[in-house]
């Protein structure tokens, strides 16, 4: 099971679990430059802190239209 308290860098599989989204959606968001991540060789890595900041900013963007 994914222990969110100790993870600092996630794979695409771990990010999919963390965000509760299909991997195909994660790949699409990454290719569109919407999710912060880095490609190392052929694999993607995602910093948990960067993902958390991205989630906060997305939430703030969604609430700004109210």
Describe the structure.
- The chain has 66 residues and is an alpha+beta fold.
- The protein has a single domain, classed as Orthogonal Bundle (Arc Repressor Mutant, subunit A), CATH 1.10.10.
- It is built from 3 helices and 3 strands, in the order βααββα.
- The protein has helices at 12-19, 23-31, 48-63, and strands spanning 9-10, 38-40, 43-47.
- It has a 3-stranded antiparallel sheet.
- The longest helix is centred in the last third of the chain and has 16 residues, at 48-63.
Provide tags for this entry.
3-stranded antiparallel beta sheet; 66 residues; 3 helices; alpha+beta; Arc Repressor Mutant, subunit A
CATH topology: Arc Repressor Mutant, subunit A
- Mean pLDDT across residues: 88
SSE succession: EHHEEH
- The strand count comes to 3
- The structural domain count equals 1
As a percent range, the share of strand residues is: 15-25%
Rg, please?
A: 12 Å
Determine the N-to-C terminus distance. 37 Å
Please state the structural category: alpha+beta
Low-confidence stretches: none
In the CATH classification, which architecture applies?
Answer: Orthogonal Bundle
Tell me, what is the CATH class? Mainly Alpha
* Main sheet record: 3 strands, antiparallel
Total number of helices? 3
Query: What is the 3D shape?
Result: globular
The residue fraction in helices comes out at 40-55%
State the strand order across the main sheet.
1-3-2
């Amino acid at each position: 099971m994914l222990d969110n308290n100790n993870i600092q860098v996630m794979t695409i599989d771990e990010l999919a679990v963390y965000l509760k989204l299909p991997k195909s959606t994660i790949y699409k968001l990454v290719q569109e430059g919407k999710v912060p991540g880095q490609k190392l060789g052929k694999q993607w890595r995602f910093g948990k802190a960067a993902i958390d900041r991205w989630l906060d900013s997305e939430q703030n963007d969604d609430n700004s239209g109210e």
